[in-house]
């Protein structure tokens, strides 16, 4: 059998535009008047439970725009795992490679202060059980997709194995952590926000320079997201600014995942990086107009209206 999508005329025959290898968490959200100091207890609002996790968020963001997406990862065989599967299914994300695991599903305990200021504790649970073996078992799936999208909420050996198999790896180095040079060299692009860029480089700085410095670490291309200021793209030694539309921001939770999911899809359909980032910035902007992460992600019609 020939590799899917590589031969012949007509539309591509690969089953998925984007395969996301990454985390799925239940976000347990409580609003608080103020964040507790160490040793202190505060009363909060009623608990709200939302599907989240960087991997699932990116997958849903791309699928809601029309991409064909699969998510590879792990959830527990528990109530949160069922919630996560339901939300993926609702948006048409394939979860056949999201394995049930004898561990609790990953959760993020999120306290939201009066100004929308978050403090977050993640218990990775089943996400920590994603292995290199899981990835190798799905090698044909990963090889068939034009883009594999990765983040750092699952163990590094699984991320590295997926990047090695990918035709093109979009790698969101978040949460920021030191990674081997081999992974950096496989990023196309490496996607980070300003804070993560500063952590990786050891110094804060102006975005254009940071992008060039990151490019010097070895990735094939770099995108730094800049919140309301959009993003910068660095490729082949050149840096391009990408604006974000002006919107009334209500909640920026998950904006970076919306951006990365959209970026991965546009690259998968063959768009050049700067144009794909410009589209992704519109998706990120649309996402901050509504509360929540996945709940806030736009459809294609909403992006076109922006
Ligand atoms: P988060 O961690 O909250 O998910 P992030 O820090 O990873 O987000 P940001 O740089 O804040 O990512 O946002 C990603 C993209 O979303 C930006 O590049 C931009 O296009 C869009 N965006 C974010 N905040 C705003 C805003 N206030 N106005 C317009 N666009 C925004």
UniProtKB/TrEMBL annotation:
EC number: 2.7.1.15
Catalytic residues in the record: 257
Name of the coding gene: rbsK
Reaction catalysed by this enzyme: D-ribose + ATP = D-ribose 5-phosphate + ADP + H(+)
Residues engaged in binding K(+): 251, 253, 287, 290, 292, 296
SUPFAM superfamilies linked to this entry: Ribokinase-like
Domain named Carbohydrate kinase PfkB: residues: 17-299
HAMAP family membership: Ribokinase (MF_01987)
GO biological process: D-ribose catabolic process
Cellular localisation: Cytoplasm
Entry cofactors: Mg(2+)
Species in which this protein is naturally found: Nonomuraea polychroma
Regulation: Activated by a monovalent cation that binds near, but not in, the active site. The most likely occupant of the site in vivo is potassium. Ion binding induces a conformational change that may alter substrate affinity.
Keywords of the record: ATP-binding, Carbohydrate metabolism, Cytoplasm, Kinase, Magnesium, Metal-binding, Nucleotide-binding, Potassium, Transferase
GO cellular component: cytosol
Entries under PANTHER family matching the protein: RIBOKINASE, SUGAR KINASE
Task of the protein: Catalyzes the phosphorylation of ribose at O-5 in a reaction requiring ATP and magnesium. The resulting D-ribose-5-phosphate can then be used either for sythesis of nucleotides, histidine, and tryptophan, or as a component of the pentose phosphate pathway.
Name of the protein in question: Ribokinase
Highest taxon above the source species: Bacteria
Cofactor: how and how many bound: Requires a divalent cation, most likely magnesium in vivo, as an electrophilic catalyst to aid phosphoryl group transfer. It is the chelate of the metal and the nucleotide that is the actual substrate.
Quaternary structure annotation from Swiss-Prot or TrEMBL: Homodimer.
């Amino acid at each position: 059998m020939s590799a899917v999508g590589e031969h012949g005329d007509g539309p591509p025959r690969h089953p998925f535009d984007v395969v996301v290898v990454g985390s799925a968490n239940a976000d347990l959200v409580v609003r608080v008047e103020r964040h507790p100091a160490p040793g202190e207890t505060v009363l909060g609002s009623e608990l709200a439970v939302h599907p989240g996790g960087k991997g699932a968020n990116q997958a849903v963001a791309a699928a809601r725009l029309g991409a064909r997406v699969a998510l590879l990862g792990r959830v527990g065989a528990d109530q949160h795992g069922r919630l996560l599967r339901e939300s993926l299914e609702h948006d048409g994300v394939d979860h056949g490679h999201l394995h049930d695991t004898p561990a609790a599903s990953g959760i993020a305990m999120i306290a939201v202060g009066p100004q929308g200021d978050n403090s977050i504790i993640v218990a990775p649970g089943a996400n920590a059980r994603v292995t290199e073996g899981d990835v190798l078992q799905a090698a044909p799936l990963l090889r068939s997709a034009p883009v594999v999208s990765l983040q750092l909420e699952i163990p590094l050996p699984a991320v590295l194995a997926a990047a090695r198999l990918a035709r093109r790896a979009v790698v969101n180095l978040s949460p920021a952590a030191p990674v081997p040079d081999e992974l950096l060299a496989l990023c196309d692009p490496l996607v980070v926000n300003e804070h993560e860029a500063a952590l990786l480089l050891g110094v804060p700085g102006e975005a254009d320079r940071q992008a060039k410095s990151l490019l010097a670490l070895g990735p094939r291309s770099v995108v730094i997201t800049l919140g309301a200021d959009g993003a910068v793209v660095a490729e082949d030694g050149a840096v391009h600014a990408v604006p974000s539309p002006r919107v009334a921001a209500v909640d920026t939770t998950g904006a970076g995942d919306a951006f990365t999911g959209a970026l991965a899809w546009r690259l998968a359909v063959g768009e050049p990086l700067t144009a794909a980032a410009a589209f992704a910035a519109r998706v990120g902007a649309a996402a901050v107009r509504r509360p929540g992460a996945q709940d806030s992600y736009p459809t294609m019609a909403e992006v076109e209206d922006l």
